[in-house]
Protein backbone atom coordinates (compact mmCIF):
# COMPACT_ATOMS: atom_id res chain seq x y z
CA UNK A 1 0.00 0.00 0.00
CA UNK A 2 2.82 2.40 0.81
CA UNK A 3 5.62 1.95 -1.74
CA UNK A 4 7.34 -1.18 -2.93
CA UNK A 5 7.73 -4.13 -0.61
CA UNK A 6 11.04 -5.94 -0.66
CA UNK A 7 11.17 -9.67 -1.11
CA UNK A 8 12.86 -11.90 1.43
CA UNK A 9 15.84 -12.31 -0.92
CA UNK A 10 16.25 -8.53 -1.24
CA UNK A 11 16.07 -8.12 2.53
CA UNK A 12 18.71 -10.83 3.03
CA UNK A 13 20.97 -9.20 0.42
CA UNK A 14 20.60 -5.82 2.15
CA UNK A 15 21.45 -7.34 5.54
CA UNK A 16 24.52 -9.05 4.06
CA UNK A 17 25.64 -5.82 2.37
CA UNK A 18 25.17 -3.88 5.62
CA UNK A 19 27.25 -6.43 7.55
CA UNK A 20 30.02 -6.16 4.94
CA UNK A 21 29.96 -2.35 5.04
CA UNK A 22 30.18 -2.33 8.85
CA UNK A 23 33.09 -4.76 8.83
CA UNK A 24 34.87 -2.68 6.15
CA UNK A 25 34.36 0.55 8.10
CA UNK A 26 36.21 -0.93 11.08
CA UNK A 27 39.34 -1.51 8.99
CA UNK A 28 40.02 1.98 7.70
CA UNK A 29 40.20 3.89 4.43
CA UNK A 30 38.25 1.42 2.33
CA UNK A 31 34.68 1.35 0.99
CA UNK A 32 32.33 -1.23 -0.45
CA UNK A 33 30.45 -0.33 -3.63
CA UNK A 34 27.53 -2.06 -5.35
CA UNK A 35 26.97 -3.12 -8.96
CA UNK A 36 29.26 -5.06 -9.04
CA UNK A 37 30.04 -5.59 -5.36
CA UNK A 38 33.64 -4.41 -4.97
CA UNK A 39 36.16 -2.93 -2.51
CA UNK A 40 37.53 0.53 -3.31
CA UNK A 41 40.28 2.60 -1.72
CA UNK A 42 41.84 5.91 -2.77
CA UNK A 43 44.68 5.45 -5.24
CA UNK A 44 44.20 1.70 -5.64
CA UNK A 45 42.44 -0.54 -8.12
CA UNK A 46 39.02 -1.94 -7.24
CA UNK A 47 38.83 -5.57 -6.14
CA UNK A 48 35.68 -7.61 -6.67
CA UNK A 49 34.30 -9.01 -3.42
CA UNK A 50 33.26 -12.37 -4.89
CA UNK A 51 36.23 -14.73 -4.68
CA UNK A 52 38.43 -12.24 -2.80
CA UNK A 53 40.93 -13.45 -0.22
CA UNK A 54 41.89 -11.27 2.76
CA UNK A 55 45.13 -11.68 4.71
CA UNK A 56 46.39 -9.65 7.65
CA UNK A 57 50.07 -8.92 8.13
CA UNK A 58 51.38 -7.41 11.35
CA UNK A 59 54.08 -4.82 10.78
CA UNK A 60 57.03 -6.15 12.72
CA UNK A 61 60.57 -4.88 12.69
CA UNK A 62 62.02 -7.36 10.22
CA UNK A 63 64.57 -7.19 7.44
CA UNK A 64 63.05 -9.79 5.15
CA UNK A 65 60.94 -8.80 2.17
CA UNK A 66 57.74 -10.74 1.61
CA UNK A 67 56.60 -11.80 -1.86
CA UNK A 68 53.28 -10.00 -1.40
CA UNK A 69 55.07 -6.74 -0.64
CA UNK A 70 57.25 -7.12 -3.75
CA UNK A 71 54.23 -7.87 -5.96
CA UNK A 72 52.23 -4.92 -4.65
CA UNK A 73 54.97 -2.30 -4.46
CA UNK A 74 57.67 -3.49 -6.90
CA UNK A 75 61.16 -2.13 -6.36
CA UNK A 76 59.86 0.14 -3.60
CA UNK A 77 59.57 -2.95 -1.38
CA UNK A 78 63.25 -2.52 -0.53
CA UNK A 79 62.59 0.90 0.99
CA UNK A 80 59.48 -0.05 2.95
CA UNK A 81 60.06 -1.01 6.54
CA UNK A 82 57.49 -2.77 8.67
CA UNK A 83 56.11 -0.92 11.67
CA UNK A 84 54.80 -2.81 14.73
CA UNK A 85 52.10 -0.19 15.33
CA UNK A 86 50.33 -0.98 12.07
CA UNK A 87 48.55 -3.84 10.36
CA UNK A 88 48.50 -4.38 6.64
CA UNK A 89 45.29 -5.81 5.20
CA UNK A 90 45.85 -7.40 1.79
CA UNK A 91 42.84 -8.12 -0.40
CA UNK A 92 43.56 -10.29 -3.43
CA UNK A 93 40.98 -10.66 -6.18
CA UNK A 94 39.86 -13.97 -7.61
CA UNK A 95 41.36 -13.07 -10.99
CA UNK A 96 44.87 -13.03 -9.50
CA UNK A 97 45.62 -9.64 -11.06
CA UNK A 98 43.77 -7.27 -8.75
CA UNK A 99 45.04 -6.61 -5.25
CA UNK A 100 44.68 -3.94 -2.60
CA UNK A 101 46.92 -3.11 0.35
CA UNK A 102 45.30 -1.13 3.18
CA UNK A 103 47.05 0.21 6.26
CA UNK A 104 45.20 -0.26 9.55
CA UNK A 105 46.16 0.81 13.09
CA UNK A 106 47.18 -2.10 15.33
CA UNK A 107 44.53 -1.11 17.87
CA UNK A 108 41.90 -2.12 15.28
CA UNK A 109 43.23 -5.64 14.92
CA UNK A 110 39.97 -7.13 16.20
CA UNK A 111 37.98 -5.28 13.55
CA UNK A 112 40.45 -6.30 10.84
CA UNK A 113 40.27 -9.97 11.84
CA UNK A 114 36.45 -9.88 11.85
CA UNK A 115 36.55 -8.34 8.37
CA UNK A 116 38.97 -11.00 7.10
CA UNK A 117 36.88 -13.80 8.59
CA UNK A 118 33.67 -12.41 7.08
CA UNK A 119 35.10 -11.96 3.58
CA UNK A 120 37.00 -15.24 3.50
CA UNK A 121 34.02 -17.23 4.81
CA UNK A 122 31.25 -15.68 2.71
CA UNK A 123 33.02 -14.54 -0.43
CA UNK A 124 36.45 -16.25 -0.47
CA UNK A 125 37.69 -18.45 -3.28
CA UNK A 126 36.57 -21.71 -1.60
CA UNK A 127 33.06 -20.41 -0.91
CA UNK A 128 32.83 -18.95 -4.42
CA UNK A 129 33.53 -22.32 -6.00
CA UNK A 130 31.03 -23.98 -3.62
CA UNK A 131 28.34 -21.43 -4.55
CA UNK A 132 28.89 -21.90 -8.27
CA UNK A 133 29.03 -25.68 -7.96
CA UNK A 134 32.73 -25.90 -8.80
CA UNK A 135 35.23 -28.10 -7.05
CA UNK A 136 38.82 -27.44 -6.10
CA UNK A 137 39.68 -31.14 -5.79
CA UNK A 138 41.34 -33.04 -8.62
CA UNK A 139 40.04 -36.39 -9.81
* Shape estimate: elongated
Strand % is 15-25%
Alpha plus pi helix count: 4
Strand order of the largest sheet: 1-2-3
Class from helix and strand fractions = alpha+beta
The helicity comes to 25-40%
The chain-level mean pLDDT equals 80
Q: Could you state the order of secondary-structure elements as H and E?
A: HEEEEHEEHH
Poorly predicted runs of 5 or more residues? 128-139
Kindly report the oligomeric state of this protein.
single chain
Distance between the ends: 55 Å
Record field, number of beta strands: 6
Structure description:
This protein is α+β, with helices and mostly antiparallel strands. The N and C termini lie far apart (55 Å). The model is unreliable at 128-139 (pLDDT under 50). It is elongated and about 60 Å long. The chain has helices at residues 8-25, 67-73, 109-122, 125-132, and strands at 31-33, 38-40, 47-48, 53-58, 86-92, 99-105. It has four helices and six strands. The longest helix is centred in the first third of the chain and has 18 residues, at 8-25.
Amino acid sequence: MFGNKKTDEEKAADREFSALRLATAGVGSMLVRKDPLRFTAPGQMDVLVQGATVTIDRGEAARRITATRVVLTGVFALALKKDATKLWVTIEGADGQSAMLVECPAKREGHARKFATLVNARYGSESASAQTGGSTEEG
